[in-house]
Amino acid sequence: MNIILEQSEIIQQPLHVTITGSKSESNRLLVLQALYPNIALENVSNSDDSDVMQMALNSKESLVDIHHAGTTMRFLTAYFSSCEGKIVTLTGSKRMKERPIKILVDALRDLGADITYVENDGYPPIKIIGKNITQSEVTLKANVSSQYISALMLIGSSLENGLKLTLDGAITSVPYIKMTLNLLHQLNIDAQFKRQTITVKPKTEAVAKQTLTVESDWSSASYFFSIVALSPIGTTITLSAYKASSLQGDSVLTTIYKQFGVTTTFSDHSITLKKVEDVLKDTNITLDLVNAPDIAQTIAVTCFGLGIACSLSGLHTLKIKETDRLEALKIELEKLGGNVHITDKTLDLEPSDRINEDVAINTYNDHRMAMAFAPLALRVKMRVNDAEVVSKSYPEFWSDLEKIGFKINKH
Ligand SMILES: O=C(O)C1=C[C@@H](OP(=O)(O)O)[C@@H](O)[C@H](O)C1
Ligand SMILES: C=C(OP(=O)(O)O)C(=O)O
């Protein structure tokens, strides 16, 4: 499905959007629920990635296809490796077969897991023969993806001797590791993360019966921060259900978007975003996003929409996500008239004073490409190709935009 976004404005007011649960929290809790069935979950994400996680956890098939879902692939690699007697091949989309998994597979093999590559060494698909894992100490590289570390942490308490992970080198996407740690603590699992070491103790007594509520997704909220930033002073949007002390690192949006003149107020499980001032044209937004890689596209496009410069760093993980997001951003922003310079870990955007009209944005099987560019319809008419990609994390994205005043034609 390709869509045309007519030039739009936010309908005044009040506007309220309820966003689905965090896919990161959901995918962790679904694995933990498989290990500890006593826990009940509320507000689980309705994203494709969480649907596929639930499908895979319940599947009795010998071949499980997790499509584009990175966390699902990584978390299940660890989970199935520790399910004694389980024999399964995990595969995914063409892109998933290009997303590296060697660091995790090597760590699991060091712990005694039986995993073989079905096609190319270091990449899915992989065949797993589940084992009773008794070894507990392993070292792994920490600067490629935090998902490998979370995957191991999630199974740690179910292993006979627990886990001691030594993290080698700089640690990337740290808030996601802390999210995993915090969820383990909520289940009363003894786990620690100190400097380069993570320990998870085996859980000997049953996990108490309890209901855990997933907070809504902050990465999905980022597109509304961008919409408010690109709207006139006074524009207000309320999003739910959020809390002031989030487990999600992308909640740093509340601080970052102050620089775009957007304030955030918390009340009663919701946040209200308000545009309070315009940004000066000579502003250069300088940010290190090593802790919040998923909002890089949103921020780059907000800056382009405002005509201001940005210098974004800490982006080395973007090259191995749903697409090479640095390349994709450069190509699509330049089609719109931007001037973008990228390295393998930075993106610099020059200030600009016009946006090319009626450009068709390619989305590269990447939900965040579609959602990050959509707010530009507040400036010009534009098109988004393969717009259905949004369902990877936020299936109602286009209908929610229509609700707040965007004019969308599907064809
Ligand atoms: O653990 C998680 O839920 C995630 C970790 C991050 O990946 P990296 O650690 O590979 O940067 C993030 O980009 C991804 O969307 C979700
Ligand atoms: C990188 C992402 O997801 P994953 O790695 O789980 O595919 C994302 O949602 O932006």
Automatic annotation (TrEMBL):
GO terms for molecular function: 3-phosphoshikimate 1-carboxyvinyltransferase activity. Keywords: Amino-acid biosynthesis, Aromatic amino acid biosynthesis, Transferase. Pfam families: EPSP_synthase (PF00275). One of its GO terms (biological process) is aromatic amino acid family biosynthetic process. Gene3D superfamilies: Enolpyruvate transferase domain. PROSITE patterns: EPSP_SYNTHASE_2 (PS00885). Pathway: Metabolic intermediate biosynthesis; chorismate biosynthesis; chorismate from D-erythrose 4-phosphate and phosphoenolpyruvate: step 6/7. Residues 58-401 form the Enolpyruvate transferase domain. It catalyses: 3-phosphoshikimate + phosphoenolpyruvate = 5-O-(1-carboxyvinyl)-3-phosphoshikimate + phosphate. Belongs to the EPSP synthase family. PANTHER family: AROM/DEHYDROQUINATE SYNTHASE, PENTAFUNCTIONAL AROM POLYPEPTIDE. This is 3-phosphoshikimate 1-carboxyvinyltransferase. It comes from Formosa sediminum.
